[in-house]
């Protein structure tokens, strides 16, 4: 069954089976990619997957179900499953949107020329990336991971009120991981990125960036444990904010899973910090005109100069506070409605990296964060492995590894005393420049 | 899938020069109920369905999948996969259906008992956790089950079906006091039906999580530095799983991305360390009758008294490295090609008493329960959070400490495990790697690591 037909059939079936309201998310993804190792194609993968997820309401009670079989029989069963779940859940009074006015913005998420890249082209680029990496530096010991691929996705949304919307996107990515070895120390460097303009893709550049990230960490020396100012490089600052992003979701605050409950309107971060959701940035993977419940997206300042302006709402969390959704529902066909940033953005400030490094006589410049299991968006706890460099008087002294950073996110954002003037070149839905934090506990 | 269509696909693949072709058809029915905020927050069920086709050329794998089961779609996919092959003339062998070895007994099939059967277990857990203390601010309880029907056919005549039924119960408790929050979780699982939920001591599980959340909420922070660490049994085994298990998979070895490359037969750990990966444990969360290539699983000794004996291998890894297959090929679903993965991985029981381990430490950390962690298999660098920890002072457990992280390299820690206890315990988890998330069990007895970097406050 075609995706559009499956969506309509599911809504019709829901109505016939007695649902008072329903919305449906249908998705399809196709991809082609390969991995290269030692100038041979190691793995090739071609894929097509699709599925349909439905949310129904009966007596204001929600129920979910999904299927990857888009047949009449399976969709009927799925709707029936969703309705049976309404017998178990608690009432959640909300009204699904009756209209959706999309802004006439080109998000530039479709790149037809990238669809023409074939596996042979990927293979040749992969061979070149790997070969360039192996030749780039004498300390390169291995290039265990070299991968390229393209993917195409389509998502359709519809509800019982007649709202319908769809989005399409496709991309191409390349990346590699390099192991450098010297004096018994092995270090790994990764570089990968999405490519929207094939003419600007340079396998050599990718190879040299990955090699540089591995080689620069050779010869690490310890630093004494203690309190240090740190600069989170723009390579890791997006991950830092991502780990705690759910603290800004209204649902988390409502359910006792965020320390930000009841803090709207309060100054809770350095006045240097502004944090926004920007759903309409061209070429950004998080960009979207409508969210997972068919609500139009909008730019939103979450923190403005240190003050918490709002949390992020979907229809469900907005219903609990009898307010409007901010258009931040996340959804895939197999999941239930959640909350997410579209693109999380910390705006650029005026200080360049050299100025940030010179802000203290001694600081650590962090270029790698390792593992997030010691970090909790609920408590704000942060305990994480890190690697980077000791900086003295603005100059790099030596690489540093096997250190841990320890603190609390909600205290650390109060200690921000500098924000950089550039983002990483990594295409991402999280855009954060270099961040200077005045003090953090470092164990070594 | 009917055998005649499978033969067409296999013939097409072999005709394109593949050495080996297999087909993996999966239909998984999963259902969950989440209880949160004193009510049923969500109830969800769904069906994953799809077919994966793999063509193996030497050590190269070409893999594709689709959820379209029509003959036209599958033939088209196979033709696309064969793009790099050469013309061959090998014929597929006859196919006759067999069943995977029985590795579980399901007394209550989740598909017949339904979602409503979970409500009582969920409510009991919620009540028990909330009753523990008025400082318990939130309780999230979920009961999840899945039934996977697997059909594997290959060019060597395998035509095998398997059913895998799993259940997992999770209690997550948040304690809060004066703006501070702490979350603790218990999440047992088994290769069983709903009788697993019935067998659980739900009140005990829930109060254990509540007790830990409350204890750690008011704990102080540990001072970060290198120190001896006594690790608790059960989920403490995650450190061996991540830091040593992954680098022992042929998927890492064949890429030369492991510190254990070329170390078979060598001493890599303290002689008190024997480690195994066993896929045959009856009804255990990470067990399988056959792996996802249809090979019967086995009990694999990885390290025996400190000496490295085996890697964990799938078909391609075993062939490339000239090793036997260990029945370790796994994947999250038809959306992934199988690679070598762990099943139930644990350090075998020893004889050292926990009290002796503690007594041998003047200043150190007792990491009673670990949270999650991560490792870079190529360099062996790992990072683990301690969910429940205590300072050791003068050979005794002193005050609880929070915010501790263990950091190091797996191959450097193995020789430093100097004491191993008799109290082996297993714990269910989910493991993520290149073939997706798969259910695995980790385990260990209490053990002592002589020195490890503990991250904390200065």
- Oligomeric state, counting identical vs distinct chains: heterodimer
Distance between the termini of chain A: 59 Å
> What overall geometry of chain A do the principal axes of the alpha carbons give?
globular
β-strand amount of chain B: 35-45%
Query: Radius of gyration of chain B from the CA trace?
Result: 24 Å
State the total count of DSSP E strands of chain A: 19
Global structural class of chain B: alpha+beta
Whole-angstrom Rg of chain A: 24 Å
List low-pLDDT spans of chain B: 86-91
Q: Can you summarize the main beta sheet of chain B?
A: 8 strands, mixed
Number of domains of chain B: 2
Quickly give the structural class of chain A. Answer: alpha+beta
Q: Based on CA inertia axes, which overall geometry of chain B fits?
A: globular
* Rounded mean pLDDT score of chain A: 95
Q: How many alpha or pi helices of chain B?
A: 11
Q: How helical, in percent, are the residues of chain A? A: 10-25%
Overall strand count of chain B: 24
Helix content of chain B: 10-25%
């Amino acid at each position: 069954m075609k995706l559009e037909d499956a969506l309509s059939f599911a809504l019709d079936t829901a109505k016939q089976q007695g649902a008072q309201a329903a919305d449906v998310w249908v998705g399809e993804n196709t991809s082609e990619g390969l991995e290269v190792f030692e100038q041979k194609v190691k793995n090739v993968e071609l894929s097509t997957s699709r599925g349909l997820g439905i949310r129904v309401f009966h007596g204001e009670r929600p129920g979910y179900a999904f299927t990857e079989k888009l047949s009449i029989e399976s969709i009927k069963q799925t709707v029936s499953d969703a309705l049976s779940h309404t017998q178990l859940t608690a009432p959640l009074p909300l009204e699904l949107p009756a209209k959706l006015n999309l802004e006439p913005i080109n998000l530039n998420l479709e790149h037809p020329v990238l669809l023409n890249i074939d596996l042979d082209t990927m293979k040749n680029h992969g061979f070149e990336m790997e070969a360039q990496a192996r030749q780039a530096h004498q300390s390169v010991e291995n290039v265990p991971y070299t991968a390229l691929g393209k993917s195409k996705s389509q998502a359709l949304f519809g509800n019982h009120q007649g709202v319908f919307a769809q989005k399409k996107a496709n991309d191409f990515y390349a990346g590699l991981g390099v192991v450098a070895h010297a004096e018994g120390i092995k270090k790994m460097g990764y570089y990968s990125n999405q490519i929207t303009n094939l003419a600007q893709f340079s396998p050599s550049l990718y190879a040299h960036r990955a090699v540089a990230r591995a080689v620069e960490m050779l010869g690490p020396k310890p630093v004494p444990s203690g309190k240090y100012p740190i600069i989170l490089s723009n390579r890791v600052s997006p991950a830092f904010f991502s780990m705690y992003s759910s603290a800004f979701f209204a649902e988390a605050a409502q359910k006792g899973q965020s320390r930000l409950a009841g803090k709207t309107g309060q100054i809770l971060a350095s006045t240097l910090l502004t944090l926004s959701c920007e759903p309409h940035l061209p070429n950004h993977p998080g960009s979207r005109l409508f969210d997972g419940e068919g609500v139009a997206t909008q730019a939103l300042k979450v923190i403005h100069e240190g003050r918490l302006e709002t949390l992020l709402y979907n229809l469900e969390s907005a219903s609990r506070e009898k307010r409007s959704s901010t258009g931040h529902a996340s959804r895939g066909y197999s999941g239930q409605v959640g909350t997410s940033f579209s693109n999380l953005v910390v705006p650029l400030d005026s200080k360049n990296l050299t100025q940030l490094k010179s802000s203290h006589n001694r600081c650590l410049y962090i270029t790698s964060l390792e593992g997030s299991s010691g970090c909790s968006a609920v408590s704000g706890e942060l305990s994480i492995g890190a690697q980077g460099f000791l900086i003295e008087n603005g100059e790099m002294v030596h690489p540093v590894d096997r250190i841990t950073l320890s603190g609390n996110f909600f205290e650390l954002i109060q200690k921000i005393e500098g924000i950089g003037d550039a983002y990483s070149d990594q295409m991402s839905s999280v855009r954060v420049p270099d961040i200077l934090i005045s003090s953090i506990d470092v164990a070594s | 899938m009917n055998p005649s269509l499978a033969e067409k696909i296999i013939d097409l693949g072999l005709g394109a020069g593949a050495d080996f072709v297999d087909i993996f058809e999966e239909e998984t029915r999963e259902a969950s109920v989440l209880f949160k905020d004193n009510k049923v927050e969500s109830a969800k069920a769904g069906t994953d369905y799809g077919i994966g086709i793999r063509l193996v050329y030497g050590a190269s794998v070409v893999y594709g999948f689709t959820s379209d089961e029509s003959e036209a779609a599958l033939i088209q996919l196979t033709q696309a996969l064969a793009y790099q092959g050469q013309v061959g003339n090998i014929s597929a062998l006859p196919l006759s259906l067999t069943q995977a070895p029985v590795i579980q007994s399901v007394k209550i099939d989740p598909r017949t008992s339904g979602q409503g059967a979970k409500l009582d277990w969920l409510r009991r857990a919620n009540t028990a956790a909330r009753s523990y203390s008025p400082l318990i601010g939130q309780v999230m309880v979920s009961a999840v089950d899945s039934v996977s029907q697997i059909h594997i056919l290959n060019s060597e005549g395998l035509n095998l079906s398997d059913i895998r039924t799993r259940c997992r119960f999770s209690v997550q408790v948040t304690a809060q006091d004066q703006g501070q929050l702490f979350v603790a979780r218990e999440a047992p699982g088994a290769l069983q039906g709903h009788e697993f939920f019935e067998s659980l001591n739900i009140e005990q599980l829930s109060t254990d999580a509540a007790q830990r959340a409350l204890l750690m909420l008011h704990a102080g922070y540990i001072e970060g530095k290198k120190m001896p660490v006594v690790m608790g049994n059960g989920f403490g085994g995650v450190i061996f799983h991540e830091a040593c298990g992954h680098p022992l998979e042929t998927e890492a070895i064949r890429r030369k991305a492991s510190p254990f490359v070329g170390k078979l037969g060598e001493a890599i750990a303290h002689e008190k360390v024997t480690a195994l990966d066993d896929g045959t444990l009856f009804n255990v969360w990470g067990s399988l009758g056959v792996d996802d290539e249809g090979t019967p699983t086995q009990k694999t000794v990885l390290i025996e008294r400190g000496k490295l004996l085996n890697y964990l291998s799938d078909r391609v890894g075993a062939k490339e490295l000239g090793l036997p297959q260990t029945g370790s090929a796994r994947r999250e679903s038809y959306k992934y090609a199988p690679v070598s993965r762990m099943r139930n991985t644990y350090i075998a029981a020893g004889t050292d008493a926990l009290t002796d381990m503690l007594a041998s430490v003047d200043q150190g950390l007792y990491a009673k329960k670990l949270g999650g962690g991560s490792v870079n298999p190529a360099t062996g660098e790992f990072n683990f959070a301690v969910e429940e920890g205590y300072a050791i002072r003068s050979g005794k457990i002193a005050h609880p400490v929070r915010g501790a992280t263990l950091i190091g390299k797996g191959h450097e820690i193995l020789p430093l495990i100097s004491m191993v206890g008799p109290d082996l315990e297993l714990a269910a988890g989910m493991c993520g790697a290149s073939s997706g998330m798969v259910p695995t069990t980790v385990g260990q007895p209490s053990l002592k690591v002589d020195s490890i970097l503990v991250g904390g406050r200065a």
